[in-house]
Amino acid sequence: MEMNSLYDSLSLIAPELIISVTLLVIVLFDLIFKNNKKMLPFLSTVGLAVALITQAGNLTDGGFAFSPENTPLFYGMLTIDSFGAFFKILVLAASMLIIYFSSTTDEVNESFDRLGEYYTLIFGMVLGMMFMISASDLILIYLSVELLSLSSYVLAGFSKNKTRNNEAALKYLLFGAFSSGLMLFGISLIYGMVGSTNLTALNNFLQTGSINLFTITISLILVFAGIGYKISSAPFHFWTPDVYEGAPISITAFLSVASKAAGFALLIRFIRVGFVSYVDSEGFWKLSEVFDWQLLLVIIAILTMTLGNFSALWQDNLKRMLAYSSIAHAGYMLLGLAVMSDQGVLAVLVYFFIYAIMNIGAFFIVMLIANRIGSENIDDYDGLGFKAPLLGVSLGIFLVSLTGIPPTAGFIGKLYLFIALVDANMIAVAVIALLNTVVSLYYYIRVLKHMYLVKPSTEPPVIKPSFNNLIFVLILAVPTIIFGIYFTPILDFAKQCVQFFGV
Amino acid sequence: MLTEFGKIFVFLIFAMLFVAISIFIARLIRPTRPTKEKLKIYECGEEAMGTPWIKFNIRFYVVALIFLIFDVEVVLLFPWAITYKDYGIYGFLVGIIFLVVLAIGMAYEWRKGDLEWARPKPNIPDLSKILKKKIAQPETIEPSADN
Questions:
Q1: Domain span at residue B111?
Q2: Chain A residue with Cα closest to B110
Q3: A418 FRET partner, CA 20 to 30 A, in A94, A345, B47, B121?
Q4: What is the dihedral of CA A86, A88, A90, A96, to 10 degrees?
Q5: To which H or E segment does residue A115 belong?
Q6: What is residue A311's three-state secondary structure?
Q7: What is the pLDDT of residues A392-419, one digit of tens each?
Q8: Residue A62 counted as domain residue
Q9: Is residue B132 part of a domain?
Q10: Does pLDDT of B122 surpass 70?
């Protein structure tokens, strides 16, 4: 590679470089000041904030980074565009919230001498996600998925003296290793056919080359298995409840928001760059006729949300319930992608933005309550609503928003999703999604019933969160309401970002 | 003319021949005094047959990790050392950055005490006492970690 082009590429990945440097700084800081763990969250937040500001400044930048020698420029390993910028901003902002979240979680702070590793590994995850979001080369896709996975395996088993925690980490590792093996097999099949690992090359091949339909179907299903595992879509979702229940709650929240966002960005880019032959005047994508992505995604999406919602009905542990609920939400968002249009992707972006806020909020309150009463069981929530009014009301807001009832932000997310579905004449699918929403109402509202209507058998403890924690709850709860009424800013921001560079 | 895979095939043949010939020559000139231990399969000093649920010494992993750092280093530094001059100062800096990251990994291991082979002796509990205790009051099932 020419040194000049390498230098240009480096300026395109400035946020990633900042994250990498911060990672090293945290490791060194932890080695030098062994007993000063108070500074670690602060350092991490500063690093993430600088990366976030850099990324927000480069919102409209576009380019291909790291094109291998002797290939056209658009065969870059990374594609930098505003679609990627949206997801990177989402991931960075979510990580900042999670850093504060972690610093107040008892489960994490118990292991004092390993805190340095905790924040380092979080940065490993962030780095993996950011590369995953812009990767446009199969090798880099695999590499970044592995970077993300390896860090999250360790974090899922972070509080290692709990049996449940070890179980979570081991299950996560076994499922992850298997599905990444499947994905690698699919990638090798694609490489065998196309002769290149680049997604643009794949697209060119599909439009001109002679194609063995059977091989390409097998290889795409295998690649989808790897990505489907990351976004926990059925039938690759079996690890989700156990891992989400066993992992420290801050990591659970992180996995359910940021890791899933990166997986979706990867899936959208994979389909958009690799398979769309042209986009018609109304923004609908015309796919190369080798593989029916729409059919696959609709089936998977319906399966995912139905399984998620119906399994959540039986859960008494709130972490586990939220895990199934996050599976169901992955199903809704897959529907947005299945529309195969710019409008559908817009709906996914809006949905993700809102989902991140309300899901982190719900997990944060479950954590605050678990810190005090040491349980996430729904029976221990009896009568809590009156003892901790602000937490109760905020949890109510988040849960109502997760259901998608106006005037909360969750309603706006679902609204745009359904509009996109109806515009594409997918009425039957929209009706199934709507019925699923009704089912989800039961298990979200059941928590509120326990908090406000069930008479507690013993006097519930008074929960007084600290001032900082209250502010944090308000930072998440107020937007959940405001964006339900005044949602133009999110919409404009997302509209600006549905742009893929070079396709 | 050999294709690229043909060259690999030649490599493969040579590798197999090398092993076969060296074993054959060794057989000709070595004395033969087999014992039970010598006839066993060699597996780094571990018992080769039996249940896999045995405890390994944790130091094996530490040594493996430390080895990995230097192994990866060498694999990447050889090609770098040959070509970095073609790329001027940038080529040099790329290698230096790589070495700095590796050095941080090394510093991490050092600071965390993984380079010290002789660790303080663990306080080994008296096995017979524990057994007696267990027979007297069998262990109840651990409550789940929920609480």
A1: 12-117
A2: A31
A3: A94
A4: -150
A5: helix A115-134
A6: helix
A7: 999 999 999 999 988 899 999 999 999 9
A8: no
A9: no
A10: no
CA closest to B143 among chain A residues:
A163
Q: How do residues A75-110 score in pLDDT, each as one tens digit?
A: 788 888 899 999 999 999 999 999 999 999 888 888
**CATH at residue B53:** 1.20.58.1610
* Mean confidence (pLDDT) of chain A: 90
Residue A62: phi, psi to the nearest 5? -145, 145
- Sign of the dihedral through C-alpha A418, A420, A421, A427: positive
Residue B95 lies in a domain: yes
- Determine the distance from the C-alpha atom of residue A404 to the mean position of all C-alpha atoms in its chain, rounded to a whole number: 19
Tell me whether residue B135 is in a domain.
no
Contacts of B146 in chain A (CB under 8 A): 164, 317, 375-377
Q: Which of B110, B114, B146 to probe by mutation at the A interface, max A CB count within 10 Å?
A: B146
Max intra-chain CA distance, chain A: 74
Mean per-residue pLDDT, A274-293: 86
For chain B, positions 12-71, list CB contacts with chain A under 8 A: none
* CB pair distance less than 8 Å for A375 and B147: yes
**Rounded to the nearest 5 degrees, what angle is found at the Cα of A191, between the Cα atoms of A188 and A195?**
155
Number of domains in chain A: 1
pLDDT of residue B147: 43
Q: By three-state DSSP, how is residue A299 classified?
A: helix
pLDDT at A364 over 60: yes
CA A444 to chain centre: 21
What is the distance in angstroms between the Cα of B112 and the nearest Cα belonging to chain A?
A: 8
DSSP secondary structure letters along A369-380 = HHHHHS--BGGG
Which chain A residues are closer than 8 Å to B87 by Cβ?
A: 3
Residue of B nearest to A20 (CA): B101
* pLDDT greater than 50 at residue B120: yes
pTM over 0.80: yes
Q: What is the pLDDT of residue A502?
A: 63
Query: Which residues from A are below 8 Å from B111, CB to CB?
Result: 31, 34
Domain assignment of residue A315, given as a range: 292-503
In a domain, A180, yes or no: no
Q: Does B142 touch chain A (CB under 8 A)?
A: yes
As a whole number, mean pLDDT of residues A214-230 equals 92
Q: Which of B85, B92, B108, B147 to mutate to test binding with chain A, by most A CBs within 10 Å of its CB?
A: B108
> What would the pLDDT profile of A22-36 be if each residue is shown by its tens digit?
999 999 999 998 888
State whether B91 and A375 contact (CB < 8 Å).
no
Instruction: Give per-residue pLDDT as tens, B39-84.
Output: 888 776 667 777 778 777 777 777 787 888 788 888 888 889 888 8
Classify residue A11: in a domain, yes or no: no
Q: Does B95 touch chain A (CB under 8 A)?
A: no
Residues A201, A199: Cα–Cα separation, whole Å? 5
Q: At what angle do helices A14-32 and B88-111 cross, to 10 degrees?
A: 30
**Phi, psi torsion values for A157, nearest 5 degrees:** -105, 35
In whole angstroms, what is the distance from residue A337 CA to residue A342 CA? 9
Asked if residue B124 is part of any domain, the answer here is: no
pLDDT exceeds cutoff 50 at A122: yes
Alpha helices in A195-283 (DSSP H): 199-208, 213-230, 239-246, 249-254, 260-275
- Which has the closest alpha carbon to A330: A436, A450, A190, A217? A436
Q: How many CB atoms lie within 10 A of CB A406?
A: 14
A452 close to A392: Cβ distance less than 8 angstroms: yes
Tell me if ipTM is over 0.90: no
- Asked, for residue A317, whether it belongs to a domain, the answer is yes
